[in-house]
Amino acid sequence: MEYQNSQLLNNDPFLRDLLLFTAIARCSSFVSAGAELGISPAHVSKRIATLEQSLNCKLFNRTTRRVTITREGEAMLVWAKQILENVHGMLETSHGDRVEPKGLLRISTSQRLGRFHVAPILGLLRKRYPKLEVWIELMDRRTDLIGEQFDIDIRVGEVTEQHLIAHKIASSQRILCAAPSYVAERGHPASLTDLAQHDCLLLRDRDSSFGLWRLEGPGGMETVKVTGPMASNNSDIVREWAHEGLGIIMASTWDVAPSFAQGKLMRLLPAWHQVADISAVTTIRASQSEKIKVCLEFLTEQLTAGAYALEGITG
Question: Ranges for the HTH lysR-type domain (predicted)?
């Protein structure tokens, strides 16, 4: 458990009880949590009873077979984790570089970026800092960092939430492309307005308006409404449709770089692009954590020049 070696946590009864509370919630067992923290089952029950009295609410429903957290307990659990993280972050900051980064990192990102780039980079990070624990969750939607208790959300494109901090970790663009077979049959669009006459393959991804493509070109920023007979929330599916000559896609250069290298896709309207930088998004509090600082530095280093760096395109 990431907090066990903190002298402050070990010496403060209330913080120890909060630590025990989070362990029981995770294990769904008084016995397992007690074993993890080196506390007898009888003492576990006594400490939780004391904590419930202090908070004036019931934290768990207990039967002979199982332990389940109550609705009030779920609300208290959010606070308990934040308090423990704050204390841990304070200790990390006070020790600075004298302390090896340790503890749990909870990271979310999109499917393809996570699978082929972020996940293997996190594997390298874990080898460098063996006291870190890593949990990565892949989802094609934006996460609620606070509500879902993630430390970092790695995103493509603009970050609009005012209460979050965006740390740019790599530069990238989205471009328009299609299969040579599609272009041979339907021709090259000569302008953005021509896209209305073409089949566009639509992706409902984490941060783009569905059916609206905003691109920057010689005349500045333009928005074009596109339509097409096929759409998906999965980028792999949309890209494969494009390979088959079914329409035009707008995709990140790193996402379609292998397709360009294999001759499966070609660029259309090269004067136009959409900025789609990669950002690691954190809360203000989390941005001060030493383990998160180390993770952000490592991601920036590896995504730009490492073995799993984001590729560009030559065509």
Answer: 15-70
| Contact call for residues 251 and 177 (beta carbons, < 8 A) | yes
To the nearest whole percent, how much of the chain has pLDDT over 70? 89
pTM, entire model: 0.68
Q: Specify burial of residue 250 (Cβ count, 10 A radius: 0-12, 13-18, 19+).
A: buried
* Nearest alpha-carbon partner for 259 in 216, 300, 315: 315
Q: Write out pLDDT tens, residues 22-31.
A: 989 988 889 8
Residue 46's CATH number: 1.10.10.10
Task: Determine how many CB atoms are found less than 10 A away from the CB of residue 282.
Answer: 23
Provide the domain limits for residue 12: 7-97
**Are residues 170 and 313 in contact, defined by beta-carbon separation less than 8 angstroms?**
no
Q: Which residue type sits at 243? A: H
Specify whether 134 is located in the same domain as 204.
Answer: no
Residue type, 9: L
How far apart (Å, rounded) are the C-alpha atoms in residues 95 and 258?
A: 44
Which residue has tokens 């097409």?
228
CB 89 within 8 A of CB 95: no
**Is 38 strand, coil or helix?**
coil
CATH code of the domain containing 254: 3.40.190.290
What are the tokens at 287? 């941005």
Query: Could you tell me whether strands 231-232 and 202-203 are parallel, antiparallel, or unpaired per DSSP bridges?
Result: parallel
